[in-house]
Amino acid sequence: MIETTAQERNRRFDRPTVFVILAVAVLYLIFAKIGLALAISARQVTAVWPPTGFALAAVLLLGRRSAPGILLGAFLANATAGEPLWVAGAIALGNTLEAMIGAMLLQQVGFDRGLRRDRDVIALIAVVAVSPVVAASIGVMSLGAGGVQPATALPDLWVLWWLGDALGGLIFAPAILVMENRIEFPRKALGEATLLLAALLIASGVIFVGVGRVPISAYGVFPFLIWAGLRFGPLGAATSAALTNAIAVWGTRLGHGPFAGNGPEHGLVHLQIFMAMAAATGLFLGAVAAQNRQAQQRAQQKAEEMAEADRRKDEFLAMLGHELRNPLAPIVHAVELLGRRDPALVERGREIIRRQSEHLNRLVGDLLDVSRITRGTVRLERKRVMLAEVVGAAVDIWRHLIVQQRQELSVNLPDRPIWLDVDPTRFTQIIANLLHNAAKFTPQEGQIVIEAEEQRGWLTLRVRDTGEGMSRDLATHVFDLFVQGPRSLDRPKGGLGLGLTLVRRLVDLHGGTIAATSEGVDCGSEFTVRVPVAEALSEAPVRMPEVAAAASRSRRVLIVEDNEDAREAMTLLLKEEGHDVRAASDGFRALAEVQHFTPEVVLLDIGLPGLDGYAVARKLRALPQTAGAMLVAITGYGQAEDRALSRDAGFDYHLLKPVEPLRLIELLR
Q: What mean pLDDT value characterizes the chain?
């Protein structure tokens, strides 16, 4: 169907529409008079009919509102050509239907008005061959019924009518359609275009008008049409074909050129067929050139994107080296403090190692989270939770940093409970990352605001700060991987540029959206998260009473770890807690150890040499003395499938390295 907007339907015949109708009518009348001036065998039928191309282009470009203009222009043209008014009206109706049907068929096949694909050229050729059947049939029958032309002449007139309309559509419609696309030529290309135009005018004048009386075949224009198509695409092909056709028709009508006096209509029929072939050739070459140019642009854009990604990767690797070395340096120095006799220095060294180890653990965790989310291996464990709970958990994570920097944090949540169907851990991570980002880039005594509201079943959560802000370009790409704002060499804020990437991808997994806005540098930032709200529960969830922790007692523990330092450190830690600990460096030694030592708890690495941890766990479950032991997987593999394999192998717990010492101690109580 012809595209018509609601605005077009409502405005009917307002002033702009009336102007379009009148302009189309006047232009159609001018083109029609030019065509009818070239009629020879019958005043009403000609082999050169530009109005077909103009009408088709008008409907494609202006829509249905151009139809009354085509109808009016065609009626005036035919009414002044010695025809009864009803015949002129019928012919005008046929011309209008021809344009409307042709445009409808083109739009149904997804026609590109820029003729930038070869299939668009094929579609245009097919349509200009089919739609003129309507105009030719209605027009010839009207001429016969009105007594304007004898019945014996009607078959030849139908062929001439169809041919003139079809060739007019193929030659003139593209020249108008391609004008829609504005193309700015560089100075070098503009010079080449000027040279091509001059060469084409000279060649056309010599061949078709007889300038210089040099006998040259009509095919002498083909090199210039090919030049135009390959170098300047559809615009060059269409305009050069229309210009050449105008000169050729003028020369042939004056009796010059290779087609003058040869065949029907004093050679104009043969000329138009030749020009149709030339125009089609140029259009095909122009489409090929356009497709090639688009492919080159896509390849260049892809290369630029890859280069940018490579640059970001290099920057990220440099940042990663910097961020990993930063905590390693104090750890190395703190290890030396552990050997000193001063208890205060030893305690200080332990605190430094603990704090920097947590920092390293967070960096590695971000890296692994980004990798898992990018590969689509993260599975959300959705639960019905209250917004206040996850916001409170996120605030607790970074409360110490906010207090340390003397920042003011305001949390404004709706009074009534808002329920969410989310993964509590991951959604807390979203808010915590946004809060950490705000705290990191907000100066001391700055303000941070967390606020939320519910609208039409969606939660809108905003984290706003009065910090450094962002440029418009950075705000656009701030969620992209490895993207960070400008940083000095000392990198006082630290980080890998992964936190906001994690936030966006986790929000996507929850079916929500996130946006970043800023008024500019030093104007603060605002991050807005939108996620669906869950239906409220009919009653508040019942909280189970807390069970007091059991008193600590000594347990028999078997540690299976192939890393010697890790094995020794864990052994010393647990012995210090009063447990009876044995250690093995691989699965075979572990199975041998349980023959004379019956452990209550087995801390088992997964990536063991020879016999992996899953196989060891199955064998331990099969032994009577360890069938009821607590099996704890301590591993660097933490994906969902890894946890599933642990459960299947008989593990009771799956802990990720590095395990917090307090977590391990609590587990053994």
A: 84
585 with 510, same domain?
no
pTM beyond cutoff 0.85: no
Place 548 in a pLDDT band, splitting at 50, 70 and 90.
Answer: very low
Q: Are 391 and 413 in contact (CB under 8 A)?
A: yes
**Domain termination residue (choose one: 149, 181, 213):** 181
Q: Write out the residue range of the structural domain in which residue 482 sits.
A: 383-532
Considering the domain architecture, whether residues 492 and 583 belong to the same structural domain is answered as no
C-alpha span between 519 and 464 (Å, rounded): 12
- 319, 491 contact by CB (below 8 A): yes
- The whole-angstrom separation of Cα 247 and Cα 444 is 78
pLDDT computed for residue 460 by the predictor: 94
The torsion angle over the Cα atoms of residues 285, 287, 293 and 295, rounded to 10 degrees, is: -120
- The reply to whether 523 and 567 lie within a common domain is no
Query: For residue 261, what pLDDT is reported?
Result: 82
Are 590 and 558 spatial neighbours (Cβ–Cβ below 8 Å)?
Answer: yes
Q: Look at residue 293 and tell me if it is in a domain.
A: no
The three state secondary structure string of 62-128 is HHHHHHHHHHHHHHHHHHCCCCCHHHHHHHHHHHHHHHHHHHHHHHHCCCCCCCCCHHHHHHHHHHH
Under the banding of pLDDT at 50, 70 and 90, the label for residue 182 is: low
**Looking at beta carbons, which pairs linking 488-491 to residues 24 or more positions away fall under 8 Å?**
491/319, 491/322, 491/323
Residue 212, classed as helix, strand or coil, is helix
Give CA–CA dist 635/653, Å, rounded: 11
Per-residue tokens: 596: 């004379």
In a domain, 43, yes or no: yes
Quickly list H helices, 453-607.
472-477, 499-509, 564-576, 587-593
| 24/152 same-domain check | yes
Does the pLDDT at position 483 exceed 70?
no
3-class SS of residue 520: coil
